[in-house]
């Protein structure tokens, strides 16, 4: 697999605060790589270093195996924190400046503005846009150079539900074209929905790095309700049940690896119990995330 | 190079304050010779107590005197262009667009170059304007125009350019250090009296260093010309040592801008 980005022992010190501590990571071509972490964990700082707006204290990183240059940045579409444009210029004029910097053709401006649905408002000044429109414009700007890599720092921040869904769809679509995306977010569910890989940062240190698929493959738990007095005993007797807990008349059964809700249903049926409610839950990224943070607190 | 200039001009041409300041500046340049002549005419009309002396005969706006005279006066207007430069650069900080420019693929050196090119263009444009205004005014007021006189003292136009360009680069440096426009303009205005206060209080043995202070050096390019009209000796040439000192400062300012931007988080 091609390595798009390799970070080695990256550290950023702000006086006594260590914003990024000895971070090493690899992102491969075609990954949609989520960076998770609580506020102040160093996500933006890391991305800022990768884009040369923040100077690292030590460590190194390379894009496509090459030391970072401005030419490399021209092939990256990136948004850091908030949308940044000249407030007194229109969307078109702003994108003309970006195109000029990136050496991107000016005739890309029209299609990208259409893609983010700002074409109607293209001649209005940036200052007059709503937050969501500003966010869309920065996505348009990131798409302008037909980038190899996109870096998005909380791209759905401030968007309406429809906007969020659209941006997510856009991200998936870009990912399907084989592009690499690096996405910093607090929204675990967003990462779970669009990312292939993710890492977790806390106070600048890397806690975990792995694929989202592994999380999705994780154990299933099943919530069941049935009108049977011996329910608990029957469930305890189920060989594939790892754990059974009762909660407000519902039973939550954590299954052994490999077992599925359908198996449990069949088992109960064979014991003469018909269930009135059954809900399957995968271990979510959110749970995993909170567990990781909790573990690191105990450590 | 041209691309970098084009990028910076795109940022400016739709910015209202840019035009307001430039137009005010242009109008002032154009109106000063006219007002001088009107003033002399007025003196003449009032001229009873001048012993029959005709103020219109003072060759203030005649070739070749005109070059040193007008450039000496015009350099006082450079503050207008300095404000243009300060706003153009402090905006990049307050809007954080300097950050986005780098993210999009400019290097920090590119950013400096693009701003320096705009400063160069402003200085050249202003110099050309001053040159044309001088030429036109000289033609109108010089009684018998001799081609040999027309371009005598033209080095003051070059000195004007150097004076303006260096001052604008100094304003660039101050903005990079202070970032906010109002503060920078304030400090820039305050700096001149501070420098003169320091040099004014130097011990006698140290007085010779005064001319090596940055604004002294810049101001030494074009010396005060009007004293000759009351028969005092003036320096009616551009001193090469002043040019040398100014070049050294120019290099220092640009290097300081580079050093500051290279190391800082944006
Ligand atoms: N310019 C700065 N000066 C001093 N400290 C800073 C600066 N920028 C960031 N920090 C500190 O670095 C740490 C990491 O900040 P960073 O912005 O990278 O976090 P983040 O993960 O992006 O957070 P969020 O989720 O809130 O966006 C924080 O403790 C922050 O206070
Ligand atoms: Mg952040």
TrEMBL record, chain A:
**Gene3D superfamilies assigned:** P-loop containing nucleotide triphosphate hydrolases
Q: What is a GO molecular function of this protein?
A: ATP binding
InterPro entries, per this entry?
A: AAA+_ATPase, ABC_transporter-like_ATP-bd, ABC_transporter-like_CS, P-loop_NTPase
- Which Pfam families does this chain map to? ABC_tran (PF00005)
Q: Which SUPFAM superfamilies match?
A: P-loop containing nucleoside triphosphate hydrolases
UniProt KW keywords: ATP-binding, Nucleotide-binding, Transport
Domain called ABC transporter: residue spans = 5-228
Q: Which SMART domains match?
A: AAA
At the top level, the lineage of the source is: Bacteria
| Similarity comment: family membership | Belongs to the ABC transporter superfamily.
PANTHER family xrefs = ABC TRANSPORTER, ATP-BINDING PROTEIN
Entry protein name? ABC transporter domain-containing protein
Traced from the root, the source organism's taxonomic lineage reads: Bacteria, Pseudomonadati, Bacteroidota, Cytophagia, Cytophagales
Automatic annotation (TrEMBL), chain B:
- Tell me yes or no: is Membrane among this UniProt entry's keywords: yes
Q: Which parts pass through the membrane?
A: 12-34, 72-95, 116-141, 153-174, 237-258
Statement: the UniProt record of this protein carries the keyword Cell wall biogenesis/degradation = no
The superkingdom listed in its UniProt entry is Bacteria
Keywords for this entry? Membrane, Transmembrane, Transmembrane helix
Q: What is this protein called?
A: ABC transporter permease
Species in which this protein is naturally found: Fulvivirga imtechensis AK7
């Amino acid at each position: 697999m091609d390595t798009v980005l390799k970070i080695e022992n990256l550290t950023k010190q702000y006086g006594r605060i260590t914003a990024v501590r000895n971070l090493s990571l690899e992102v491969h071509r075609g990954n949609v790589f989520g960076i998770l972490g609580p506020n102040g964990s160093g996500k933006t700082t890391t991305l800022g270093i990768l884009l040369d707006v923040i100077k690292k204290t030590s460590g190194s990183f390379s894009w496509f195996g090459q030391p970072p240059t401005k030419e490399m940045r021209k092939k990256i579409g990136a948004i850091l924190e908030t949308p940044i444009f000249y407030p007194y210029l229109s969307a078109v004029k702003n994108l003309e400046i970006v195109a000029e910097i990136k050496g991107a053709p000016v005739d890309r401006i029209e299609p990208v503005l259409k893609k983010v649905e700002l074409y109607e408002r293209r001649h209005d000044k940036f200052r007059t846009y709503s937050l969501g429109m500003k966010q869309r414009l920065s996505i348009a700007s990131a798409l302008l150079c037909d980038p190899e890599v996109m870096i998005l720092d909380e791209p759905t921040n401030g968007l309406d539900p429809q906007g969020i869904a659209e941006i997510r769809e856009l991200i998936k679509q870009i990912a399907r074209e084989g592009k690499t995306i690096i996405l910093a977010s607090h929204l675990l569910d967003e990462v779970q929905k669009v990312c292939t890989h993710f890492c977790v940062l806390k106070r600048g240190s890397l806690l975990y790095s792995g694929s989202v698929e592994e999380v999705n493959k994780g154990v299933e738990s099943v919530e069941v309700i049935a009108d049977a007095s011996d329910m608990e005993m029957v469930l305890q007797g189920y060989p594939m049940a790892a754990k059974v807990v009762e909660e407000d008349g519902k039973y939550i059964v954590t299954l052994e690896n490999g077992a599925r809700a359908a198996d449990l249903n069949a088992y109960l049926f064979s014991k003469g119990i018909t269930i009135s409610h059954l809900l399957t839950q995968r271990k979510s990224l959110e749970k995993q995330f909170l567990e990781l943070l909790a573990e690191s607190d105990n450590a | 190079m041209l691309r970098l200039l084009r990028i910076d001009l795109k940022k400016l041409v739709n910015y209202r304050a840019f035009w307001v300041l430039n137009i005010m500046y242009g109008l002032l340049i154009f109106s000063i010779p006219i007002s001088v002549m009107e003033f002399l005419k007025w003196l003449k009309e009032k001229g009873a107590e001048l012993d029959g002396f005709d103020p219109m005969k003072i060759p203030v706006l005649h070739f070749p005197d005109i070059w040193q005279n007008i450039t000496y006066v015009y350099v006082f207007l450079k503050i207008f262009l300095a404000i243009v430069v300060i706003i153009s650069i402090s905006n990049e900080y307050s809007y954080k667009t300097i950050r986005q420019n780098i993210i999009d693929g400019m290097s920090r050196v590119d950013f400096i170059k693009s701003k320096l090119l705009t400063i160069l263009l402003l200085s050249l444009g202003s110099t050309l304007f001053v040159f044309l205004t001088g030429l036109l005014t000289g033609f109108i007021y010089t009684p018998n125009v001799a081609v040999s006189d027309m371009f005598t003292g033209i080095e003051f136009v070059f000195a004007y350019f150097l004076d303006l360009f260096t001052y604008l680069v100094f304003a660039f440096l101050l903005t990079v250090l202070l970032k906010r426009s109002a503060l920078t303009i304030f400090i820039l205005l305050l700096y001149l009296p501070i420098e003169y206060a320091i040099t004014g209080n130097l011990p006698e043995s140290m007085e010779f260093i005064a001319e090596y202070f940055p604004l002294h050096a810049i101001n030494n390019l074009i010396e005060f010309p009007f004293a000759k009209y009351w028969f005092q000796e003036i320096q009616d040439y551009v001193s090469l040592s002043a040019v040398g000192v100014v070049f050294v400062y120019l290099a220092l300012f640009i290097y300081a801008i580079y050093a500051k931007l290279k190391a800082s988080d944006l």
